[in-house]
Each structure stands twice: as structure tokens, then as C-alpha cells.
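Hey team,

Filing this mostly as a record. A colleague (T.K.) asked me to run one chain through the structure pipeline before their review meeting, and I want the input and output archived in the tracker in case anyone asks later how it was produced. No errors, nothing strange. Just documentation.

Input sequence:
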Amino acid sequence: MKECKMLICGKWVGSDKYFDVINPYTHELLARVPEATPGDVGMAVESARESFNKQKLPAHRRSEILENTSDLVLYEKEKLARIISTENGKPIKSARMEVERSALTFKFAAEEAKRISGETIQMDAAPGTEKHFGLFIREPAGVVAAITPFNFPLNMVAHKVAPAIAAGNTVVLKPTSASPLTALELGRIMLEAGLPSAHLNIVTGQGPGAGEALVSNEDVNMVTFTGSPPVGRRIKKLAGMAKVTLELGSNSATIIDKSAEIEKAVPRCVIGAFSYSGQVCISIQRIYVHENIFDEFLNAFIPQVKTLRIGDPLLDETDLGPMISKDAAMRAQAWIREAEQEGAKVLTGGERNGNILAPTVLSDLKPDMKVVCLEAFAPVVSVIKFREFKDALDMVNQSIYGLQAGVYTRDISNAFRAIRELHVGGVMINEIPTFRADHMPYGGVKESGIGREGVRFAIEEMTNIKMVSFNLG
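Output structure:
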């Protein structure tokens, strides 16, 4: 057990009050972390504001720092992976992949830092402006408040901090209280990489305290948040005139058309539904399978689900570890039991041991069951039969969420129909909705949020356009 400190004004500082970070698998106390006061948050924002005003970095220097960060993240891959695995229960092999992705995210940001530009405007397109020359440039928003979730404690931080620094902003980061240790370690790495100390401040604590003090601070120019829709709505109200990007909930669906290559779809669906115990925004929660191949799909899918190995996240052979808390596992199991009582069948899984929930597959479901219409954020997937492709599209769209969807089909007309008609932020053809490359635009519609991540697209969110016009007459 160690006692951690926050990064404020370029110094590692403690607090009068601390909270515990617990290993979700062993339940041992990993660390005591400071509970930031509103005063601590205010000092962090003031530090970021002063650094933004007085210590602007040229693009080549920002790029160099981000490239150094990428290299150091890879150099410390095993250490970071073990921190991730112990504080949030992610299997070590998945944690290593997260570290590798995070390094790539910083590398993308290093590249983008050198190509942030505007464009010229054809002023003579409007009568009376023939003697004007116009262009716009992009300028950093200022102080960016970044609030990150427990499930990707390194790469989600990278997706907020890296583009913010690339664009020339300064950052106040508040990682989730469930898994803050990785973010604090990244803060150390970025200072070692050459980032001026006050360009990144890290405050730790609970959302209602530190989080609300951060997003409501009038010196914050932009808020980027990943978490639940209710908290996202609260942030939007508190943020005032600050720009806001919200990456919120989902219950992502995959359509398995009658022409789909089942041998390719099945193993990907197992990964999409059960990676990190389903605690992924774009985890597959609903699989719609054409009636002609429904039994064939299940006969291939269920055996592969049963081969998943559950156990200690630090063991290389483990596929599924614990959920983040016992309460989260109990809530998911309660939804399963409720669905059973309403007529659903549990084809495999459903058992719980503490905060470990066995991978669960359900059938015979109704659209209004919680496991279908809400976000389970658990190793639970519903397999639902459809007759017409239009019916599958309609069922996917019935969700209040709209992050990403997957479609397996060899019918090109159905593929393009899905692209046109699905109300989501991303359509993955012959791929699961859990697919994400870190340089692509990522975000949703409806209750899944507003704005886009993916380094170049996050930079657009984190910059302001300044129009310039020359009168040449």
C-alpha cells in the first residue's frame, strides 16, 4: 500500500482527506489517494490558466514531448499494464494491449501537432466581397478539463490529454476515483518527457466534489468527459459557456445477416461481448441473427463462450477477471434474473462469485427488458432472432443510445442500407461495434453523447476557429 499525491502547480501534493483504491480481484488495499477540495481544484485550474497564458509551446516542441511520452509509455509497458490490471481488474494481456494503444495515441498526437492549420475562404463567392481575401486559423481553446472513466485508465486519458497538448492547450485531469493510479503514473511520465509542469495538473477525488468544482470553474474553456448519461447531462448544465464533448453510454448491437460468414463473425462476437467483462462502451450487448442461421450461430457461439477462462487478471491465460465492484456485478445479475422471470432463457452463465460474473448469453427476450434496452456494462449479451433485414435495423435503432453498430453481411445493398439507416456514430461492416482504431473519429448520437474523439477530431473540438479577412480594395 502506498500514499499517492496529486499534481498541482508543478508539485506533487497531498490532502487532509484520502480515499482508498482497492484491487477488485484480491480486495487488497492498493493505495490511499488524496481527496481534492474545491480549493485544490481551483489552484489546479489557476495553474493551468497561468501556464497557458505565459508558457506557450511551439508545434515542434509539443510534438517532441508527445513523441517522448509515447516512447516512455512503451518503455514502461509492463509496469503500466500491471498497475492497470491491479486497480481495475483488466486481464494483463488486455492491459498490455491498452498500453500499446496508448503509446500509439500519443504518437498520433505528436504527428497531428505539426499539421494543425486552417484554410482560405473564397470571399468573392458573395457579392460585394470581391476585393477581400479571407482565411481562418485554429487556436487552442485554453484550459481543458478532462474527466476519465475506470475501464481504460490509460488510453482514455491519452485520448483527452494528448490532443489537448497537441493543440496547445493546458489540462486539468480528474481520473475516476475507482482507478486513478495509472493516470498519476502517466503524469510522472509526461513530466519526464519534457512537458512543462503546469501544463498538466491532476486532481483526484469523487465526482460530486472535485469533478463538479472542476467543470463549473469559469476559467475552464473546454470539458471532455467519458462516463454515464446522467453525469454527462449534469456536466453540460454546470459547464456554462465552456465547450463540451461527452462520450456517454451505449448498448451496442451487431446484426448477423443470413449471408454472413458465421465462422468469422462468431469469434469476433465473443471478443466484442466479453472483453474486459463487458465493461466497454462499445461492448456488444445485443446480437440480432437472421432466423435462417439462428441455431447455427448459437451452436458455434455458445461453445466458444464456454472456453473463456475466468480468474486472476495477472495471469496470462485469464480471459475474464472481476467487474469493477461487487455492486456492479450484483446489478447485472439482478437484470439477468429479472429477464428470466419475464421469460428469457439463460443459455450459459448467469452465476456470480463476488464481483466476478460468468459470461452470460440470453435468448427469448423482449425489447423492454433492461438487458436489452439499457446499458448492462457487464459480460451479458442478448441473442435475438429477426426475419427481415429492415426488422433488424429497426430493432437496433429502438435504443436510446447510438454509439456504434456492427453488421456482418455479404450483401452489398444491405451493407449500404445499414450505413444509411442506422442511427449511430459509427457503422462497422463485417466487424463488431467494439472495433476502434485510435485515429478514427469516435463518438455517438442520442444518449451516447456529443462531439468526437480520435486525435485529429478531438483537436478540432479543442480548438477555436479565428476568421481573418483582408480588405484589398
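Quick notes for T.K.: The longest strand covers residues 132-140. The chain has a mean pLDDT of 97.
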